[in-house]
Amino acid sequence: MAALIAPSILSADFANLERDLNAISSADYAHVDVMDNHFVPNLTLGLPVFERLAQVSPIPIDAHLMIDEPDRWAPAYAEAGAASVTFHAEAAAAPVRLARELRRLGARAGVALRPATPVEPYLDLLSEIDMILVMTVEPGFGGQSFIDGTLPKIRRARAAVSEADLDVWIQVDGGVSRATIERAADAGANVFVAGSAVYGAQDVPAEIETLRDLASA
Ligand code: DX5
Ligand code: ZN
């Protein structure tokens, strides 16, 4: 399966977001972390900034909404031009209704799971979504270390997707680097978010290629 690389601009220079989006133009998606200081103890950016990022980004945007009340706020990110909008299962009141709304607006619909959130309740609903995001750290901050205990969940999600013969992507986010990406790929992930590993590299395009090669091997 082709590996898709989605660098997270959480590790970019927030005073130079357009420059830092252009730096990752060889990647598949630009991962944009929206945090509201309620669902997670950190605050990043909201819709006005997101709308401009979507206008200037050279590659499609993958929005990761770490926010309360995604049922209320997520559709606007699809309307702003996100190619993919991922909301947290723990925060959504009606995940299927929200996923259908995101798809109706032309975005891919993703459901994110914190490390301690089980995937099983969502396995019967795979036909309603385009991606499962298995968080490999607790959401909220970049630069944390990969939690190996999430690998069995990735495996179970991949097995269920294969069993159902669906094209649901499995994304991992948090602590993804040269040291960990192969473990996540072996477990069945096909979309890889990396923030500090990409933006902390001396040569950003080369790092994207290295991660893609390691994940595809
Ligand atoms: C964390 C965010 C991630 C973050 C990953 O809650 O969802 O996207 O940028 O950062 P790294 O790759 O540094 O762990
Ligand atoms: Zn993220």
TrEMBL record:
Binding site for a divalent metal cation: 31, 33, 64, 173
GO molecular function: D-ribulose-phosphate 3-epimerase activity; metal ion binding
Pfam families linked: Ribul_P_3_epim
PROSITE patterns: RIBUL_P_3_EPIMER_2
Active site per UniProt: 33, 173
EC number(s) reported in the record: 5.1.3.1
Keywords per UniProt: Carbohydrate metabolism, Cobalt, Isomerase, Manganese, Metal-binding, Zinc
Task performed by this protein: Catalyzes the reversible epimerization of D-ribulose 5-phosphate to D-xylulose 5-phosphate.
Source organism per UniProt: Cellulosimicrobium arenosum
Protein known as: Ribulose-phosphate 3-epimerase
